[in-house]
Design goal:
Blueprint (H helix, E strand, L loop, with lengths): L1 H26 L3 H26 L4 H28 L16 H9 L1
Length: 114
């Protein structure tokens, strides 16, 4: 009974992180901030949700570990690819004066000449 309560609390905590991620995606001012919110909070929320399910149903641990590894590997990569695509499309962050360095500027010039 205590294990079920702990599992429920962890799963609900994961669900709250997923809810906060969805609210953050709506409320953030630009694409870069939305990607940050979507990636970080959904990764943590999904992992907590999987842990809660795994505690409640131990026979699912194998499948949940595979899902967790998939999320841990694909979320950062997809976020990185999206941010590079947005940079190459010319989207800049809304935060004026905060971005002083552009490490991808040279990459874009090389791609245009190739």
């Amino acid at each position: 009974m205590i294990v079920g309560i702990i599992a429920g609390i962890i799963a609900i905590l994961g669900s709250l992180f997923l809810l906060l991620a969805s609210i953050g995606i709506i409320r953030m001012p630009d694409t870069y901030n939305r990607m940050q919110t979507g990636t970080k909070a959904t990764t943590l929320g999904s992992l907590l949700f999987f842990i809660g399910i795994g505690i409640a149903h131990p026979y699912l641990w194998g499948k949940l570990v595979v899902l967790a590894l998939f999320i841990l590997l694909t979320n950062p990569i997809s976020s990185h690819v999206l941010s590079r695509a947005m940079h190459h499309a010319g989207k800049t962050p809304i935060l004026p004066g905060k971005q002083t360095r552009d490490d991808l500027a040279g990459d874009q010039d090389q791609e245009e000449h190739a």
